Amino acid sequence: MSCPDCFSGHVHAGTPTGKTTKLHGLDVYVAEPTESSTPPKGIIIIIPDAFGWEFVNNRILADHYADRGGTSSRCMDTRYNAPPLQNIISLRLAPQTVYPSPPPPPLPAYKSTNPNPLSYHLVCAVYSMLPFIISNRFSTSYPIVLSFFTAVRDNEGVHLPVGAAGFCWGGKHTLNLAFEGVTSAKNGKPLIDAGFTGHPSNLEIPGEIEKIEKPVSFAIGDKDIAVSMAQVEQIRKVVEEKGAGEVKVYYGTGHGFCVRADHIREDSRKQAEEAEEQAIAWFKRHFEGVEH
Known about the structure:
The protein is α/β, with parallel strands linked by helices. The chain has helices at residues 56-69, 87-93, 110-113, 118-135, 138-154, 169-177, 207-210, 229-242, 257-260, 266-287, and strands at 19-23, 26-31, 43-47, 72-76, 162-167, 194-198, 216-221, 245-250.
């Protein structure tokens, strides 16, 4: 299910410290541990949400994974036809947008500097959402993701643990990479050793969960309109029975909180940071002792 929250949220303050490059035919943002004397403990690849690999929040998250997890982290270009970042403001102001709690007040400068009515922002929101939904079907984007992960496993990841961290649209890709039999044709190794997904969307529940073989950690808000609490319990039941993951529910949060939380609000910042630590701890745990 696609929802307005897939396209809404807040831009975080900060400057990414990594670099952009071409890797295996795609544009990629790469972040390395600042402690360069220690070899990376593995590779984490972020499969981003609808705002794509250029979104500053996604790049800062890659920086944090690298520094706090001691990994070589990448945010890949999935070739999403991403909505313009300025439309975050439009989506935030559009009255139809669903929020997990009472909507935050308009941006302080809105009334004095922005003459456009809310109807204008609603049109911008729809203008961003519809082309994305049409042009970014899973059948179109997953082959790109699969090819990139295969190239990483066959090259720089041939002897290192590899993890996938997927958010929103990227969550479905992460789960599919964790399926049984998703391996490199060249060396027979699994494409990922572990996965993490924050507020995934468009999942087939319980079907896709039942196919998971590699361990996957889920971070989902109880107000997420893409995955209901009944579905969360289905996911929890399957992964616990299979011993293939964990599910952590963040109460009071909705869709997008891992990447696009409002850091001005202390509760939102805290939950986003907890989800970040959840992912880092999960990859540390499942990268340890992995040999390829």
